NAD(P)-dependent alcohol dehydrogenase
Amino acid sequence: MRFGAAVLRSYENRFAVEEVILDAGPADGELLVRIAGCGMCRTDLAVRRSAGRSPLPAVLGHEGAGVVVETGGPDTGLSVGDHVVLSFDSCGHCRNCMGAAPAYCDSFASLNLFGGRKENAARFTDAAGGELAPRWFGQSSFAEYAVVAARNAVRVDPALPVELLGPLGCGFLTGAGAVMNSFGVGPGDTIAVFGAGAVGLAAVMAATAAGAVTVAVDRHPERLALAERFGAIPLYAASGDLPDRIQRLTDGGAQYALDTTGSAQLINDALRALRPTGHLGLVARLHTALPLEPGALDRGRRISHICEGDAVPGLLIPRLTGLWQAGRFPFDQLIRTYPLADINEAERDCDAGRVVKPVLVP
């Protein structure tokens, strides 16, 4: 099978939309999905900064959504014509997967980042027969089609705009899941969200939907305006008294804080802004040491890393689409669509902060 896909051939080069070849249909337990839209996540772009770790050349993309066109075997639980959102890959049988924590799968890194399923490594080639890296996050969905394991495809209502739903499989899942799953935010709780990008704004929307008092911290006025539209109190990040201001706005300190920036300074600000027993969650990968200020974790305060919003995608994605249908999770307002052929323009706009969430439409 031949189709178009965006190939990244080196860490320095731009994407090139090329013809690629899938040499076999889906195996048992797999699906062939026609991609309707795929979000661009900063994890896709971070491949350039992790040179040598993620194998290239490759087709990236891990926020895909589309329509099932072929199933491998009778036991996928899905049918041709089903609309699906694709999420991260997991083994399905390790202790964490069995314990409803697939984001902490024992094989998460190998399946999603560093080579994928070895038995499928040679099934995906370029037009000249050159091997492409195995499926990125179990998808490689910067393409017209993707082969995925059925367990990381979530059926959604066909009345929904499937071309816009892909970011619910990672970026929006992460922010909303941190609020709903990791923290369990409820009415009257207080939360400070540091960074008003795609993940942070999804967290703001989820916190507002939960009835929380929410403070959003960012250095871009336009992002703060979005956060305010979604129900948060905006707070400019450059002010020197952030913890004190957050404590005043949250009546003595936030019960929860979510950092999406990876900034050591903001992480320490977030810890100081917490009330006793408060919980800080980190979702960004740290690239430097994180020195904590004395007393940062006193009085029951704690800090943890949150992967993929602690989500079981098959449970959280339908919950988010239900909130969207009720007008309480307006994620579509963060999206700008681009033709797949304009993937490099989408990357430039994402890097420059001109768009919150690019979605590529084949």
